[in-house]
Design goal:
The chain is α/β, with parallel strands linked by helices. It folds into three domains: 72 residues, Arc Repressor Mutant, subunit A; 101 residues, Aspartate Aminotransferase, domain 1, CATH 3.90.1150; 236 residues, Aspartate Aminotransferase, domain 2 (3-Layer(aba) Sandwich), CATH 3.40.640. The protein has 17 helices and 17 strands. The strands form five sheets. Strands 4-12-11-10-9-5-6 form a seven-stranded mixed beta sheet, sandwiched between helices. Strands 13-14-17-16 form a four-stranded antiparallel beta sheet, covered by helices on one side. It has a two-stranded antiparallel sheet with strand order 1-2. 37% of the residues are buried.
């Protein structure tokens, strides 16, 4: 057998690699049959006018990958079974339909009857979807440098299983300092449990604190992710009305084992719970022995007046589980959130986290610890607070100019969205026709929604786009 090959000595591809590629291609195409002998390294080197070591290197690679095999005293041959075939599964005759026989789901599984997708706006559509931060203004070069700092000086603790499923110890310490300083949360680093976003935090709370049939008091309208978690676990949800001061305490059911609230910037109305109302919630929970989940998302973005203290920091004699996330203030792909648990619940939350996924990715935790300790996060928040404040002003001003009293904006100057009630019943149809994507507030309600309410996010789009989007809502 001869290898009729033309080698390009001017190519950047090494000669041994060229020889290897031509042999491999010839074998796979059937030009060289299985079991055929191949020339010796000396013979092929003379034929191709290259050094014997060049041919030897090509042969060694072909032998290592299973294209050639050697037989002591007999020479080298093309393998009868090629490696490419070993990587391909053989098809077998179908024994029945692909879906197989019916599988009985658990009660939890049967309650998962809907997919949860965020619709993406096609090109040319102005998207007012809430909860989207401004990604171009995030300091990604700095974030990459912090990640590379740990990649260049590898620490086994960053790449191995984490010693603590509750979180990277340095990050837990930084989070404890951060929430204590900015939100008046009372905690130690040992109370911090790092999770994959606030949604995992809610799921762990439901698993550990609730049984099917338990009563849960929830804001109405309220956060859809919390609705779905508690419903999937079979609890009975009791809607709590929202007024200008926050959740209405007199509507709390006496039997509720758990109360879920978003006091800093109620989702979706945007109301900030007043100090008096916070004290009422704490007093109610203390009397009933109920647990409070305080979801403090977006608390960093308040555009007028001093920040309100966390409910957790004010509570005494009440079990308050404080939940926060970095996905909204940094970028959604960073699935890093945290729980500040009461001391008596830390062990069971830590065990449940270990069973769920062992631990959250440690490399990102290590980089975030640096991002916090070096002050980068607070500088980023200050920049974005000013930017988002201007965008909120632009949205409210534009709605007032084009709609006047026929569009009512709810909530305080905070967060990353506003809820608006329009008098025009055809606004949704006109928005779709004029290429504006809106999110209806209907799906946030546990009870019948009043209709004509929409949740408009402003953080991820510029002021010019905001003005154009509102103008399109008015157009014919």
């Amino acid at each position: 057998m001869r290898l009729a090959a033309v080698l390009d000595h001017a190519s950047s591809t090494p000669l041994h690699r060229q020889i290897y590629e031509q042999w491999r291609k010839g074998i796979l195409t059937g030009r060289f049959r299985r079991g055929d002998p191949v020339p010796s390294t000396r013979e092929l080197a003379i034929t191709l006018e290259v050094s014997r070591s060049t041919v030897t290197e090509a042969y060694e690679q072909l032998i290592a990958e299973g294209y050639l095999e050697t037989s002591h005293g007999s020479g080298t041959f093309v393998c009868r079974k090629l490696p490419d075939e070993l990587l391909t599964a053989r098809h077998v005759a179908k024994a029945g339909p692909l879906e197989g026989s019916p599988v009985r789901l658990s009660r939890y599984g049967t309650r998962l009857s809907a997919d949860y997708r965020r619709p993406h706006a096609p090109p040319g559509v102005i998207d007012f979807a809430p909860g989207i931060p401004d990604l171009p203004h995030f300091p990604f070069p700095l974030w990459r440098r912090l990640l590379m700092r740990h990649l260049r000086k590898p620490d086994q603790a960053v790449f191995d299983y984490a010693e603590q499923s509750a979180g990277y110890p340095r990050l837990c310490s930084e989070i404890a300092r951060y929430v204590s300083r900015l939100r008046a949360v009372r905690c130690t680093p040992e109370q911090v449990i790092v999770v994959n976003g606030s949604q995992q935090a809610l799921d762990l709370c439901a698993r550990l604190l609730l049984e099917a049939g338990d009563d849960v008091a929830m804001e109405n309208p309220g956060y859809r992710g919390a609705h779905r978690v508690f419903t999937a676990h079979g609890t009975r949800l009791h809607p709590l009305s929202i007024d200008g001061e926050g959740v209405v305490v007199r509507h709390f059911t006496r039997s509720a084992r758990l109360v879920y609230v978003t006091p800093s910037h109620q989702l979706p109305t945007g109301v900030s719970m007043t100090l008096a109302r916070r004290l009422e919630v704490i007093a109610w929970a203390r009397q009933r022995g109920a647990v409070i989940i305080e979801d403090d998302y977006c608390s960093e973005y308040r555009y007028s007046g001093p920040p309100l203290p966390s409910l957790q920091g004010m509570a005494s004699g009440v079990a308050v589980i404080y939940i926060g996330t970095f996905s909204k203030i940094m970028f959604p792909g960073l699935r890093l959130g945290y729980i500040v648990a009461p001391p008596q619940l830390v062990p069971v939350f830590t065990r449940a986290k270990w069973l769920a996924d062992r631990h959250t990715a440690v490399l990102e935790q290590a980089a975030l610890a640096n991002f916090l300790s070096e002050g980068h996060l607070e500088r980023h928040i200050r920049r974005m607070r000013r930017l988002y404040g201007l965008r909120r002003e632009a949205l409210v001003e534009s709605l007032g100019r084009h709609f006047g009293a026929s569009a009512k904006v709810f909530g305080d100057a905070a967060g990353m969205h506003v809820m608006v009630r329009f008098d025009d019943e055809r606004l949704g149809q006109r928005a779709a026709r004029n290429r504006v994507q809106l999110v209806s507030a209907d799906e946030y309600y546990l009870t019948k929604a009043p209709g004509r309410e929409f949740v408009l996010g402003f953080a991820g789009i510029g002021e010019r786009t905001i003005h154009e989007g509102v103008k399109r809502l008015v157009g014919g």
